[in-house]
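tokens incoming
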């Protein structure tokens, strides 16, 4: 390392070998197979249901999140990556996506479209959180929103779709759906007053976080995991005692629709969700063994959010799930996903003339859908065959000086160890017969690929 590069490394407190910052991780090829499979399942289910994909910017003006999520939430107070641009404007890497989707709905006048508008996303997000199992500072989520219609049947549909995706991924039996209602905004105001009256005088029994929440976000007192706070929460007033007739009927209808869909759930009166914009229905998918500590996702209704962000009063409901957490559960259950990354053919060659012929052959095989890799270096045939073994290919083509002269090529069956000589111009057809048309990875530029 030169003096200059040493000085640069010292300036930025880096020393080789470089590593990822705390709380972020590389998505390696074996995990991308899970990501690809999950995205395919999500896209399939949501397209069936009429949802359209949306992508919002990775960063937004900070006020988009501060106004929507709530100034007193842990995300806004402690977890957002916020910075000033060169003009001094405050920007934030998105910590969640409902706020961004609603901002887009308003900005692009989607209220003029046929309602409800159904949108889904698969994107990375950022929170300065304490890294632990299934929790990262950069993480991936998929989610879907129905904006523009107030109907308890839609709440049930959102939960049903989320559960259907879990079924497709083979993990639905691992979770119990937690369900609650937190009523309308007016119901919550009355309930929060009752909560404060109950907790005042008991501050010494609260953890430091909950002492702060008592003034800023009292509903979060109910889902604290501290032992003393949990005991107090068990004895606290119940939200059901402060629901209006309309909210009670709405919640009853949601449960009736879920029963019709044969969706099992657990009523959890302490479930409140961590964001201020929720109203009425809230739900989460909790690990059947670990509970909320290993939940994969949740959602609910947020009828006031569009208006809070400057639009017309518009009802909405949505759901989001963590992809890394889902992958962890799939691995725990030893669920294997289909892979399209396996190579069909390895091409080994010796000599300059063989290399020339292999260049075009490799391209032609790929165009037919044969996934092909070629060893075009100067290694011996023995080394090339060892490399073919490492790639775990079913077939290797061998082309040397003799084969070039005779217009032939050798097909080696790597599992059986047997070989056959075929005409060079017939080798592609021979390989397709062996591998099977149904296993080819064909692609046409005219196809729409997502």
């Amino acid at each position: 390392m030169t003096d200059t590069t040493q000085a640069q490394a010292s300036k930025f407190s880096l020393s080789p070998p470089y590593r990822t910052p705390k709380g972020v991780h590389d998505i390696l090829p074996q995990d991308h197979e899970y990501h690809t499979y999950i995205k395919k399942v999500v896209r399939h289910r949501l397209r069936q249901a009429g949802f359209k994909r949306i992508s919002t910017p990775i960063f937004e003006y900070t006020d988009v999140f501060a106004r929507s999520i709530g100034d007193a939430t842990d995300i806004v107070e402690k977890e957002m990556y916020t910075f000033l641009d060169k003009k001094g404007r405050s920007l934030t890497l998105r910590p969640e996506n409902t706020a961004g989707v609603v901002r887009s709905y308003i900005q692009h006048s989607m209220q003029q479209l046929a309602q409800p508008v159904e949108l889904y996303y698969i994107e990375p997000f950022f929170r300065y959180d304490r890294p632990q199992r299934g929790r990262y500072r950069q993480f991936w989520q998929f989610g879907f929103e129905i904006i523009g219609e107030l109907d308890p049947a839609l709440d049930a549909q959102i939960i049903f779709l989320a559960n259907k995706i879990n079924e497709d991924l083979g993990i639905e039996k691992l979770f119990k759906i937690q369900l609650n209602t937190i009523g309308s905004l007016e119901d919550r105001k009355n309930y929060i007053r009752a909560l404060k009256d109950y907790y005042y005088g008991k501050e010494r029994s609260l953890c430091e976080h909950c002492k702060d929440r008592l003034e800023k976000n009292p509903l979060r007192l109910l889902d604290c995991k501290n032992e003393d706070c949990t005991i107090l929460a068990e004895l606290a007033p119940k939200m059901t005692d402060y629901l209006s007739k309309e909210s009670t009927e709405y919640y009853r209808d949601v449960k009736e629709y879920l029963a019709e869909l044969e969706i099992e759930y657990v009523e959890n009166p302490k479930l409140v969700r961590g964001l201020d914009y929720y109203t009425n229905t809230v739900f989460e998918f909790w690990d059947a063994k670990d509970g909320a500590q290993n939940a994969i996702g949740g959602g609910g209704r947020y009828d006031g959010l569009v208006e809070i962000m400057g639009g017309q009063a518009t009802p909405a409901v949505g759901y989001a799930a963590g992809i890394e957490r889902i992958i962890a559960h799939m691995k725990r259950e030893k669920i294997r996903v289909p892979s399209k990354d396996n190579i069909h053919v390895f091409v080994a060659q010796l000599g300059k003339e063989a290399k020339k012929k292999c260049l075009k052959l490799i391209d032609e095989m790929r165009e037919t859908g044969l996934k092909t890799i070629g060893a075009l270096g100067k290694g011996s045939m023995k080394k090339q065959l060892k490399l073919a073994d490492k790639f775990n290919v079913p077939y290797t083509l061998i082309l040397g000086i003799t084969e070039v002269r005779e217009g032939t090529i050798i097909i080696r069956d790597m599992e059986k160890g047997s070989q056959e000589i075929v005409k060079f111009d017939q080798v592609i057809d021979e390989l397709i017969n062996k591998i099977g048309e149904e296993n080819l990875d064909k692609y046409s530029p005219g196809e729409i690929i997502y």
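note: The longest helix spans residues 29-48.
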